[in-house]
Amino acid sequence: MQHWRSLRSLLLALTCLSILGVFGKLFFSSETPVPYQAKLQPLDFPDAVPLDSFTLLGGSAIAGDKTPVVGSQKRLINGHVYKYEKDGRSLTIQMYYMFDTSGNVIGFLDSHTDIPEAAIGPSLRIERYRQAVGYYLLFPYQGRDYLASCINPRGETTVTLPQFRDNRYRYDIWSPRLLRWLFTAENIRDFRCLWVLISAVAEKPHSASSYAGLEQIWFDWQAQWQARFSHL
Description:
Number of strands: 7
Radius of gyration: 21 Å
Shape: globular
């Protein structure tokens, strides 16, 4: 019994110190918080990214918003489009580096691409999960098969707001980021997302083999970019 009382006293003391630390940060820090978007730098997208058995045809940069603003649609920092070919079949991979996102793939597609939300109805889209990779969305649109997902700064990929939010709590709040927040002006939660949209001409309508090809490309692509993104 005495052991548990000592442990409880220690936990209470640590809680009090944490609370005092937060108040000290809020009221006595002379550092002026730097706006989150002002600290973000464009992601370095190389001109060529190797993709097994595919030939790179070219690519182009996606310009970011001139004045990114939290709480508006101006959240795009920068991006890049890569075009490949294999056996006469073209493949396009679009990358969007954004901040202050919700992690909602369907909302992102509706706001930043030509694919309307109505075209990705529940009966058309397929949400899948792969361990150590994460969630991703598959759907057809205008004769092409698509795969979309959000690569998180930490944790697995996500396609919905609850999945993205759970990643933030797991890898941001309950992590060393909490300590950094106590002593710096850095945000606790990291709302950046590296959106990925992969598409190819459909071999057959709703073809399982066509989706399987996109999935294998996605697994290879995610492994490359997760390592790049996690170090930022």
